[in-house]
Amino acid sequence: MLFIILQLLQISALEDCESKSPFTETFDTYEFKLMIMPYSYSFLEPFITSTIIYAHHDHHHQTYIDKLNTYLEGMPDLQSLTLADLNLMAKDDTTLQKHAGGAYNHNLYWYFLTSPLCAKAGPEGPLLDKIVEQWESYDNFKNELTTKMKDLFGSGWVWACVNEEGDIEMRSTANQINPLMQVDSSICYPFLGNDIWEHAYYLKYMWDREAYINSYFTAIDWDQVEFFYNEYASQFRSIPI
Amino acid sequence: MLFRRFAKFTLPKLPFTDNSLEPIYDKKTISFHWGKHHQTYVDKLNQAVGENDYTLLDIIQNQSQNSLPLRNHGGGHYNHCLFWLCLGSNSSEQPSGKLLAHIQKQWGDFSKFKNEFNQAAINTFGSGWAWLSVNPEGKLVISSSQNQDNPLMKGIFKANAVPFFTIDVWEHAYYLQYQNKRPEFVDKFWKVVNWKQVEDMYEKYALQQRPVPVDKILG
Q: Where does this protein have coiled-coil stretches (chain A) (predicted)?
């Protein structure tokens, strides 16, 4: 009887996995709209709660969109650029770094993630091959990324990205800067990242950032991330999101 | 027996009970902010200092520009000590005496000063602090900083000044109660300021261009 119940629970979880909306390329320009979440607000539990998503998406992410639009209203030369392009242009523009960065980074974040019930344990295919080539194993890669996430001081993001030589690098960036912006660094095309701002985890994990990071690795949508690597990052392209 | 002297920093007791700032600043936030975040800065500061005999003021003013761990964790310890000293129940909502007179002289009235300070706090992007300090010319200056940087830090802060009033705008300072509503937290903060303590630090230290020895005051 217990076996049957467990089977039924597994089946319903798998059905839910289909509920994440697939990524489609976006070439929107000003005026930007807040993206619709690709899944329900409880989909990422127990990694991230619906209360966190409500604050993070409906408020923080919304505010980046609003402030970006307000800025672009007075910058006609930037109004025909996509969000990815605005990020590529942000090297010397601190307002774009904040708000185009915030908008873009969070667009990516929601797609990097999936339900822990649906997530694969790790990457496969060409991404795994490249990780093994550089780190010998996914575990080594994961450990190094974990350390960078733990060590980031203040607010920021940690990224896995492809540099100009075609190698995977891990980059920590402050605030809403990302490696497309080339602020004090060469370009690196992100395909995976984690939000280390306290707002991303405080309501559930509070000071225990390490627990948030450990849980993050159970909620990565590796199919999506492999796609981002194969189609964009490894081709030296920014993700059109 | 070899006697080793080394600086050992400890988490000071709060100068108020952890529930006395409710409902503006609740017990849960205060106890985690102090017992977890501030404690971690103290622990990591001790690790970074090792057996060196630095004082906290030396770390903040001089060592911070040479060492990122001392800058981050020394700053974290100092800044949180100053923050606790600025807080208390029974707030009079604005200072009196010399400090009020000085604010009015420079800003015309207290509310203009308050607005400017609030803007500094609200507009600090990411993690940081807003400060009120006295500069070497004897003027009051409002400033803000990123992460755990502090106006005393030579080589880091362009124009050094002696801070005596501050608000923590790292998200951990307000997120449990206010979430993204930082402006609301900043607005309500004025109701829980211990002006007597702030005026004391202004008169005894900042006006004399002496850094406030926050860890010694908290004991």
A: none
